[in-house]
Amino acid sequence: MPSIDLTGKVAVVTGSGRGLGLAYAHALAAAGASVVVNDVDEAVAEQAVKAITAAGGSAVAEVVPVGTSEAADRLVARAVEEFGRLDILVTNAGILRDRVLWKMTDDDFDAVITTHLKGTFTCARAAAVRMREQGEGGTLILVGSPAGQRGNFGQTNYSAAKAGIAAMARTWSMELSRSGITVNAVVPVAATAMTETIPAFAPYIEAMKQGEPLPDFLRKGEGFGTPEDCAALIPFLASEAAREVTGQAIGIGGDKVTLWSHPQEIKAAYADGGWAPDTLADAWPTSLGAEPQTVGVPAPKFPEA
């Protein structure tokens, strides 16, 4: 396996002022890539740039909310103006507007879809245009979520966006293969500002902040760790070691890395001449309905006190 060396490569990481995005930006810079840090908060973005450069990396900030074509064009243009090219895009920017279906407003839905789904689309499109013009391949890394793979209570907008992102990764991996551009979705699980709000995780995250390690049942059993634990996957996917890895959804967190399955038919039943409502009703309990698929992100399995 070749060493991970991204010297000479240029990356854009959206939503990289803090949390997972910041960890991704640090990991890419540590591997030698020059990074365009993106955030909506100028102070946060500049602080991220200072931290990366203080560690010996190369980075600049571009402050713009993703979602529009204009924002995507600005990010790609900044990479080209500052560093001469673009090789890696990580679409990490996101927001939450959690509500159950009957309480979710149009604004709640539109804001999350615009940032996550349209933001991923517009940034990936702009990056793909540039990478194809360069003619040297490239890497698109789209950040998904377990909510997009399995659904999550109160997250209609977020789950839909993240499911769409995984579908776009599969589609774009086919469309961009002849250009040498790999496209993968990553599914991180980490202690972030969002997971701090989950009561079951909160005491462990607070203990971690005080310097205590996360227990093995979280790091291994749940695949739950720090943002830095998730970051190793990003330079790997951007490297020559992963040139044949494309169209995949890859989970990472704590000490665990996983490969998510693609949606596929798992069982079939047949009726000569086709189905009618009553024959479906008769057959369902003993055929397709015998083992229905589960939904939702499984609750953590905490050890008994």
Automatic annotation (TrEMBL):
Region (Disordered): 285-305
Taxonomy, superkingdom: Bacteria
Keyword list, A-Z: Oxidoreductase
Ketoreductase domain sequence ranges: 9-192
Record SMART domains: PKS_KR (SM00822)
Family assignment from sequence similarity: Belongs to the short-chain dehydrogenases/reductases (SDR) family.
Name of protein: SDR family oxidoreductase
Upper taxonomic lineage: Bacteria, Bacillati, Actinomycetota, Actinomycetes, Kitasatosporales
